[in-house]
Amino acid sequence: MDWEVVIGLEVHAQLRTRSKIFSGASTAFGAAPNTQACAIDLGFPGVLPVLNKDVVRMAVRFGLAIDAKISPRSIFARKNYFYPDLPKGYQISQYELPVVEGGHLDITLEDGSTKRIGITRAHLEEDAGKSLHEDFHGMTGVDLNRAGTPLLEIVSEPELRSAGEAVAYLKKMRTLVQYLEICDGNMQEGSLRCDANVSIRPRGEQTLGTRAELKNLNSFRFIEKAIHHEIERQIDVIEGGGKVVQETRLYDSDRDETRSMRSKEEANDYRYFPDPDLLPLVIEPAFVEAEKAALPELPGAKQQRFVDSFGLSTYDAEVLTATREMADYFEAVVDGLGGEPKLAANWVMGDLSGALNRDGLDVARSRIDAAMLAGLLRRIVDKTISGKIAKQVFEAMWAGEGDADTVIESRGLRQITDTGAIETIIDEVMAANPAQLEQYRSGKDKLFGFFVGQVMKATQGKANPQQVNELLRKKLSS
Amino acid sequence: MDIHASTLSELSAGLAAGEYSSEELTRHYLGRIEQHADLNAFITVLPEQALESARAADQRRREGEAGPLTGIPLAHKDIFCTRGILTTCGSKILSNFKSPYDATVVQRLDAAGMVLLGKTNMDEFAMGSSNETSWYGPCQNPWDESRVPGGSSGGSAAAVAARLAPVATGTDTGGSIRQPAALTGITGLKPTYGRVSRFGMIAFASSLDQGGILALSAEDAAHVLGAMAGFDANDSTSVDRPVPDYAGDIAAADLGGLRIGVPGEFFEEGLDPDVATAVRDALGVLEGLGATLVDVELPHLGLSVPTYYVVAPAEASSNLSRFDGVRYGYRAEGVSDLLDLYRRSRGEGFGAEVKRRIMTGTYALSAGYYDAYYLQAQKVRQLITDDFRKAFTKVDVVMGPTTPTPAFGIGDKTDDPITMYLNDIYTIAANLAGLPAMSVPCGLVEGLPVGLQMVGGHFEESQLLGIAHRYQGATDWHRRMPEGY
Which residue of chain B comes nearest to A38, CA vs CA? Predict the structure, then answer.
């Protein structure tokens, strides 16, 4: 049977506000347990929620960026269930009337084509705390620092058709929320989380199959693996004559499998109803207009501009615009260099990205800033050093030996462009290798490379390669 | 005349004239609380703290910084959170709970220099009309100790009626200020929804709850409301509009040309004929003061009790979820697992009436029933609100009885929740519509007080208080004291 995979994603983006969605407590990550939870977050008797305006601003910014409708009036509801890390016994969320409705995100597929994925809605809600089951000797610890952290839950249409598409969508989503400066996109810390609704159906079938909801997907790799697994599991179930049941499944990255968490029958009746403590959220058109005017250049537009004005390939443009910091860095290098975007692109995507990955740094914490890299590339352009030497200079700069010119001077790496000096070295190399010279002259052209290598070795790579080539060719054939 | 027979306004004048100090006044009331401890009006009494506040108030007066409320003793219903002080809400589940913060109402009255005597008894989580659901036991009505003082603000009402405090705060979700005020012969005011901050007031039904005042006169209530009311950034449902000078406004009140709407629905079967007579007499007094009586209709009034008993329990079922034994309050011992912790902490911590309402409300919000109950109730609520809106195009205020009967006996209605619920038949509509309403003592039926209820338009507290003030200028029901106090 030829199966079609249907995936919809629910992304939870933790909004980058200083304080919580309904209280003044800090949202900073990593504090000692329960030190960033006030009476409101702890659900004390008598406390009331007050909506954080920055949260609304961020939701509006997101809605504008995905070309969605910003609801002029939306409602906060209570989702009722008992759990120790849910202090009030209900989560304040949006249910019937979300703040953002309709919208889309374009993803790039492996073949380079673009696919538009519909976004059903995005709504605001508060996060719960954390239950800690280890280290408490059969008891459970509760940390409520995270309780009340603002979340934007972004629900896609079931339009993703493979694990790869799901990952592409999530990466695009992360790039977007980072550009908008509404979420730091950190999946390890849980700032960006994802649940996947996965089902299969015979290709050509119109109605959707029964779905399973996968939870606990906290890295791109896990998402891809978990979805792959789930697809295989569902195919096995159906082809084995069984039926997929609607349930929530948890991905276990250690064992690389999904397992059932609760079935539809066991699912809570959340008893949603409008929260009487909060008035309807009314967003005035002027507020939306002001946010629209303040929107940064979005990743799609930036990518297109890099192609149009820098002559970069679509692929390079996409890589360079994957984060706003990376794009800004690249543009700063081009600025500093006064042009040469392709050279800049190669270095940013090559040596710089490699060094950042190696040291686990993001570009904002790069040991070589954009001005320094531009300084290095300028020395390639003006032929002070060769591209190969430049790699050596780059490493020295990365190690903290100073800017390009300092390294070139202190290490004596300035390129040898003096024709006389190069000719002298060529003469010496020819004299030292009479056998090879003989062979070359009797027609073994391949040995030309040998002579180039010897000259570069003798100059420790500092000789200008073009000059070496020209002069060698002239001398060898004379 | 004993000092405690005085109204707050008279005490304020006495303090200003130096006839007594706040410390003396406070000592006097603390003595009375002790003397009448059998009423069970208080859950917590704060002698040391009260005397300390009184001395601070006296100091403030010496420095020339005293306002009209400075040094006046007061009691808070135990539903208002008080920092470092037991705040039980009349429940076992909060019997060990000391709030880490002050409610906005507490903070504002404290800032005005009022002296907190203690926290008053109440129906558990304000769910009741007789104070009998309190985990701390029933409170007695000083007019007849075998009878209830009403509820849920029963302790506050009994305390003020017995002159154990010159004034007390209360909350009113379906009549919890007006009904006990009527049954104890005092003046009760439930302001417009949003007029007084709910921050720190333990929620029963958030869209209906409103803090207010139990006092000896409309004038007293006006003074206290002025200090309590106003926008609070901590309460999204509090309304940002200026607080009038209530005390100044009522002094200027004139009933000439006032149109009083009298809905026939308030005088149908179930109303004690003697109560009806007392209310009609009161309306006659107001006519004599220049008002005109106009027949109005509130056709959906009969639906207010069933509507209320869907909306209020639904909100309560969610509001009370936080009492789970995890972070504060009562926690069952020796539990086996999480579910056991929840079941037993809540099962042992909540009383029968609270459980009944949590179950009713949970049911009303359940999948498949939400539309039929909660949504339907919200629609009826709108109809009731519209009834009042229409009435207010013809009249300035709507009046009728506060309760169908005078105070009933302790234990008389505890076996029949529906009969108990019907005690609030006249008061609930004002909560559903968010309107300000008062109860003013207007007579005695077989020696027991009854109340005249007045419902005004949104934010028309000045008008209501003004009418009540004029009425109290012409009558002395509000000066009557129960015998032996």
Answer: B100
Rounded Cα gap, residues B343 and B340, in angstroms = 5
Q: Report helix angle B22-35 to B8-16, nearest 10.
A: 140
Whether residue B484 is contained in a domain is answered as no
Pairing of strands A90-94, A76-80: antiparallel
Q: How many CB pairs under 8 A join A and B?
A: 101
d(CA A373, CA A380): 11
Residue B233 lies in a domain: yes
Q: Which CATH topology does A419-476 take?
A: Arc Repressor Mutant, subunit A (1.10.10)
Q: How far is A140 from chain B (nearest CA, A)?
A: 9
- Look at residue B463 and tell me if it is in a domain: yes
CA–CA separation, A71 vs A284, rounded Å?
10
Pick from A277, A281, A282 the residue to mutate for testing the B interface (most B CBs within 10 Å): A277
pTM: 0.90
Give the best residue of B104, B122, B327, B345 to mutate against chain A (max A CB count within 10 A).
B327
Q: Over the Cα atoms of chain B, what is R_g?
A: 21
Q: Å from B364 to nearest chain A CA?
A: 9
Residue B186: which CATH number? 3.90.1300.10
Instruction: Write out the DSSP string of A360-399.
Output: T--GGG-SS-HHHHHHHHHHHHTTSS-HHHHHHHHHHHHT
Rg of chain A in Å (alpha carbons):
30
Domain boundaries, chain A: 3-290, 297-411, 419-476
Q: What is the ipTM of this complex?
A: 0.96
Size (chain B), residues: 485
Residue closest to B484 by CA, chosen among B41, B29, B143, B141: B143
- Interchain CB distance below 8 Å, A46 and B322: no
- Which residue's structure tokens are 């004291």? B481
Using a CB–CB cut-off of 8 Å, the residues of B that contact A are 80-81, 87, 89, 94, 97, 99-101, 103, 198-203, 205-207, 233-237, 314-315, 317-318, 320-324, 326-328, 338, 342, 362, 365-367, 370, 374
The residue range of the domain holding B181 is 3-259+456-479
Q: Based on the structure, what is the number of domains in chain B?
A: 1
Residue of B nearest to A84 (CA): B326
Decide if A296 contacts A180 (C-beta within 8 A).
yes
pLDDT exceeds cutoff 80 at A267: no
Q: List the structure tokens of B224.
A: 């206290």
Report yes or no on B109 lying in a domain.
yes
At B336-378, the pLDDT tens digits run 999 999 999 999 999 999 999 999 999 999 999 999 999 999 9
| pLDDT recorded at residue B422 | 83
- Comparing CA positions, the residue from B277, B253, B282, B258 lying closest to residue B267 is B277
- Residues A43, B103: C-beta atoms closer than 8 Å: no
Catalytic residue among B9, B152, B304, B345: B152
Angle CA(A379)–CA(A381)–CA(A384) in degrees, nearest 5? 40
Contacts of A273 in chain B (CB under 8 A): 314-315, 318, 365, 370, 374
